[in-house]
């Protein structure tokens, strides 16, 4: 949104920054400043005006981060690729279409019936230890989180079924998934839901690899579907998918313990500066469900004693705990709130005015996984 006023590009990305270790939250009070941030994150700005605008944003956020970390919360905030972003720019990455999800839950049924029962589950589980989780990815400036959550779940279930951990194409889902419900969403960077992603994969006969159908929408552009059985052949197929009962804790615990990773929807509006610890900073009264991620396990923090969910994000390994976040897990009576803005984003015609969502950051509201 800045216009070039000069032929000179103020580029502050330094090659030496590639060799510099990431600055941790406890180092921020020791002479950390904007020029170090620019070098560390290879930032480049189009004009001097933008440079000063970003610097002002950074300094405001840094002061807030330091104050938070001094207050003794169960999680620490840090600097990352979003520290010089506006709220509106950050929201571009939050592509879960809540209105579409509400319409889907109200009018559709999963491909397979849910069948989990209340059984004994282990005290902790981490599917990363099973060799079925691919490296953390980065969706870029595109609201394609729903495609990443779906593709990453398919990767894991295909690996459990076949022993092959393929990196699969988010771009195929973003570009080729149809929206037969006409919810007003454009799909792609405009947002979507994992149920439609699974249906789209089934509809074309499978999901191509990242190598034959690479991710192109990093900068927020949408692209026409280029799927072809000849040039982008499927390397993973689905037989169906499951949608768990909404806002229920027991089915989620049983599914992640017995079945595998799960695609979940959350309110991630307060996640931008998370670095480490057990997060408990969501708005639980009026959460705004806006992001799709993958639940890969749960456990109890050894230092604080807090129970947590382990969530894989798609904002690169430089964010959070190497690309992951742990959020507070309620073992009984999870809090519920009302999403009063389900129309945020593209929205649907005649959709509900509000939707009840439960769990920390609304994690219990919309939960799915594929079947291979």
TrEMBL record:
Residues 34-90 form the Cathepsin propeptide inhibitor domain. It comes from the Eukaryota. GO terms for molecular function: cysteine-type peptidase activity. Keywords: Disulfide bond, Signal. SUPFAM superfamilies: Cysteine proteinases. Residues 121-346 form the Peptidase C1A papain C-terminal domain. Residues 1-21 form the signal peptide. GO terms for biological process: proteolysis. SMART domains: Inhibitor_I29, Pept_C1. Belongs to the peptidase C1 family. This is Uncharacterized protein. It comes from Vannella robusta.
């Amino acid at each position: 949104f800045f216009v070039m006023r000069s032929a000179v590009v103020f580029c502050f990305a330094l090659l030496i920054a590639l060799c510099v270790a990431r600055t941790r939250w406890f180092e921020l009070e020791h002479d950390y400043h904007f020029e170090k941030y620019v070098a560390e994150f290879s930032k480049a700005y189009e004009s001097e005006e933008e440079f000063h605008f970003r610097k002002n944003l950074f300094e405001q956020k840094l002061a807030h981060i330091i104050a938070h970390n001094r207050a003794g919360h169960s999680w620490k905030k840090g600097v990352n690729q979003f520290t010089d972003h506006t709220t509106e720019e950050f929201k571009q990455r939050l592509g879960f279409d809540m209105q579409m999800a509400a319409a889907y839950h109200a009018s559709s049924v999963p491909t397979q019936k849910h069948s989990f029962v209340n059984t004994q589950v282990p005290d902790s589980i981490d599917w990363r230890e099973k060799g079925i989780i691919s490296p953390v990815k980065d969706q870029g400036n595109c609201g394609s989180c729903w495609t990443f959550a779906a593709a990453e779940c398919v990767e894991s279930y295909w690996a459990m079924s076949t022993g092959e951990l393929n990196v699969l194409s988010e771009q195929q889902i973003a570009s080729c998934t149809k929206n037969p419900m006409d919810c007003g969403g454009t799909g792609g960077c405009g947002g979507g839901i994992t149920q439609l992603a699974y249906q789209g994969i089934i509809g074309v006969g499978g999901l191509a690899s990242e190598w034959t159908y690479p991710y192109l929408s990093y900068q927020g552009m949408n692209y026409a579907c280029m799927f072809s059985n000849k040039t982008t052949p499927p390397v993973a197929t689905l037989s169906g998918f499951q949608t768990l009962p909404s806002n229920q804790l027991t089915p989620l615990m049983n599914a992640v313990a017995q079945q595998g990773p799960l695609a979940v929807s959350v309110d991630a509006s307060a996640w931008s500066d998370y670095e480490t610890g057990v997060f408990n900073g969501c708005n639980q009264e009026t959460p705004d469900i806006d992001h799709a991620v993958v639940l890969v396990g749960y456990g109890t923090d050894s230092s604080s004693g807090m129970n947590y969910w382990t969530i894989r994000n798609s904002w690169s390994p430089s964010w959070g705990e190497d690309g992951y976040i742990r959020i507070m897990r309620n073992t009984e009576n999870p809090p519920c709130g009302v999403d009063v803005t389900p129309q945020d984003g593209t929205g649907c015609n005649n959709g509900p005015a509000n939707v009840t969502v439960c769990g920390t950051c609304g994690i219990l509201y919309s939960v799915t996984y594929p079947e291979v």
